[in-house]
Design brief:
Two copies of one chain form a homodimer. Chain A is about 70% helix and about 0% strand. By secondary structure, chain A is an all-alpha fold. Chain A has a domain of about 130 residues: Tetracycline Repressor, domain 2. The first copy, chain A, starts with 5 loop residues before the first helix and ends in a 12-residue tail after the last helix.
Chain lengths: ~210, ~210
């Protein structure tokens, strides 16, 4: 919606990086104007309100996530290869490869847990879409008989989300050099437990 | 440190609840004074700075977590019973049974990921202590031969943290009625995979 125009896009891009540092509530038009060396009134020409800016930032993040993580994974063969690609892209996203500061959705989950309104609604929608995307890819792996038939794709998706959140915690807050290895090990464990043919357990980290 | 005195304690208690809503950075002495119907100068008699208030709030949360989650679990028999009690207490904590608003540590993880300073340092220390506590309890389960000998306790702790974070996400942001069932199922899966005697898989949600 209305995220057209180069100047508009440049503002939203910068706002996305800032939001990862200060949250979307901390992202006032004043802060953004000062950061971009523009006048606050100039920004008001692009966004009628702080909320409109927040929604545009979130939409931009959702677009990037689909373009950088979801679409490339969906180009992989159905089943386990697609699931592996989806997880690898998710880790890259959370690790900050695409947006400096890492996963804005996780940052906002805490900020908007208790804050009703359109921003929270859009955030919930983004997360519902993501969880359903994981579950659908898991379903292709069941259909291809890569994963066992009695697996609950939504439970699998829940566990993937957890591995990603623990990765952010270990990587960004704890500066744990093993963060990525632990995330990959957790994923392999989850996969191995649900693969159609019994696999050797693999729970040790490198 | 200095968290003595009834008035001081009352302020910190209220600040802990507010911090869960607005973050520790949003917790200015002005906001708190207005909430408590006290003068800002009155609060300055208790805390020399906002940072001192933030550190006291975090220390209070750490004390409560130890008292309400860690200590009761450590009174359980070594091994799997203790590990189960620790996880159950963790879920209660994250679900908001003890502090309205849920897990302040998770809320602060996003807020302080990029914000160096004494508050972040104390938060990291609290999380390191927690992860090490889980790992030590896992080690008792290995020693008691409830869990397999080649299990990496730190990997197990990482996965527990992830289950708890996904629980907060599902429970608080997504209002998922299955949030708790999914968390317990994920924990049972993790346990079953690492139990000394092979257990039937249990990955289906209720």
């Amino acid at each position: 919606m209305k995220t057209t125009g180069k100047a508009h896009k440049k503002i939203v891009d910068r706002a996305l990086v800032l939001a990862n540092q200060v949250g979307l509530e901390g992202l006032s038009l004043g802060v953004l104007a000062s950061d971009l060396k523009r006048s606050k009134s100039g920004l008001f020409a692009h966004f009628k309100s702080k909320e409109e800016l927040q929604l545009d930032v979130l939409r931009e993040a959702m677009d990037r996530f689909v373009t950088l993580v979801v679409k490339p994974a969906l180009e992989q063969p159905r089943g386990e290869p697609r699931l592996r690609a989806l997880f690898a892209g998710f880790l890259d996203w959370v690790g900050g490869r695409y947006v400096k500061g890492g996963c804005i959705f996780m940052a906002l989950s805490s900020e908007y847990g208790d804050r009703p309104g359109p921003v929270r609604d859009l955030l919930v929608e983004s997360q519902r879409t993501w969880i359903n995307t994981i579950a659908r890819v898991v379903q292709t792996a069941i259909d291809e008989k890569h994963l066992v038939a009695d697996l609950d794709p939504m439970q699998f998706a829940y566990e993937i989300v957890g591995i990603g959140m623990a990765f952010k915690h270990a990587h960004k807050l704890m500066n744990d050099p093993k963060a990525e290895t632990r995330a990959r090990t957790a994923f392999e464990n989850l996969l191995a437990r649900n693969q159609s043919k019994p696999q050797p357990r693999s729970h040790k980290s490198a």
